[in-house]
Amino acid sequence: MSDLLWQKPGVTVDAEIQAFLAGDDVILDREFFLHDIAASRAHAEGLQRIGILTGDELAALSRELEALADDFGNGVFVLDATYEDGHSAIEARLTERLADAGRKIHTGRSRNDQVLVATRLWLKDRLATLYAIAREVARIALERAAAEAQLPMPGYTHLQRAVVSSAGMWWAGWAEAFIDDAQRAADTRAWIDANPLGTAAGYGVNLPLDRDHTTQALGFGRVQVSPLYAQLSRGKFELAALEALSSTMLDLRRLAWDLSLFTSAEFGFVALPAQYTTGSSIMPNKRNPDVIELMRASYASVAAARCEIEQLLSLPSGYHRDLQLSKGALYHGFGKGLPALALLPDLLRNLEWKPEALAAALEPSMYATDLAVDLARDGVPFRDAYRQAADPQRWLAGDPAASLAARVSPGAAGDLRLDLLHQRLETLG
């Protein structure tokens, strides 16, 4: 490991203790490394603007930071146990290449400042990805809702057949859910879009840092003004981002549950694209819906990440090393959640309904609610209408198309109001 910036003369660093302190930083910082480099470049520009660096020093640092990013991307530079963490690796590389100019890069910063801005930039990228996936899913669901608006299917309550529903209603429900998920991702991204660069370890520094410049250079929406709040927001902002992810993952989990049921032999309503199923290792007759099962399971990792970060936040104000552990939870939660969601659009584009199986599952009892409402509309008090409609002798094989057309309450099968959902989706941008 390279020399430690904080090492004191005459104090021997215990290898076992240092390994515990470093934890998985080197591994995790590979995920945030390019963002740390970008923030270091912006910081160097800010230092030049206040006279800490010369124009030539800034040019050299910018050149070497760009080279480091290229080398890291190409695998020429490897972030490994040679370094304490990603931040020390950047400084070591710049010092090796530029001597004193490289040593100046840490002026006015702390390692906490570095990880805070790098993870903030990373979170903005991840929330943008979440937003894009949720919008795409909503658009696909709306297109299929329009195309399959009148395809009858059973509607369930308590996992029991209840009423006649439609594929259009099923799709519209997911469309609105994922519009909300996209909105929440966008709102959360805007909320955390605050630049902590230049807050050091939470108390500022004795330099007139040009924080407005670094905010613009890094594409942040605003300066996070208070250094103390920069520390208070660490964990709080990460938790909010995971909550935006988890709300989308909850919808994914329930959608996957529907498909697990609908693809079973007992239902037989849906055929999945072949690539979304796998063969059994022991039962030659089977194709298993492994993809949707793992989609369903992925929520657990996001929930675990939320719990882990939440448990770190029982702290007084100021910086605490405890917060180092939030990086792993953040990476694990988004690392499991986004790949699961990324598979969803093509799945939804290509799944196929089995109309014969859907029609066969419609039975006379499922028109009882229609009968009760019709009687009430004709003047029978609803309690009496309910009792009359509950009589199996009055149940007849109904017309699913007529049942759907008669369901004219706003949002129901006879009045899906997909135009309103389209408007919301387009408003998102």
Brief synopsis:
By secondary structure, the protein is mainly alpha-helical. The protein has helices at 15-22, 25-49, 55-74, 86-98, 100-103, 111-147, 167-192, 211-217, 227-233, 236-262, 290-312, 326-342, 344-350, 355-360, 368-377, 382-389, 400-406, 418-427, and strands spanning 152-157, 160-166, 194-195, 222-223, 270-271, 278-279, 287-288, 352-353. It has 18 helices and eight strands.
Walkthrough of the structure:
The model has no long low-confidence stretch (mean pLDDT 93). The protein has three domains: 93 residues, Fumarase C, Chain B, domain 1 (Orthogonal Bundle), CATH 1.10.275.10; 232 residues, Fumarase C, Chain A, domain 2 (Up-down Bundle); 57 residues, no CATH class. Helices cover 61% and strands 6% of the residues. Strands 1-2 form a two-stranded antiparallel ribbon. It has a two-stranded parallel ribbon with strand order 3-4.
What tags apply to this protein structure?
mainly alpha; Fumarase C, Chain B, domain 1; Fumarase C, Chain A, domain 2; 3 domains; two-stranded antiparallel sheet; two-stranded parallel ribbon; 18 helices; 8 strands
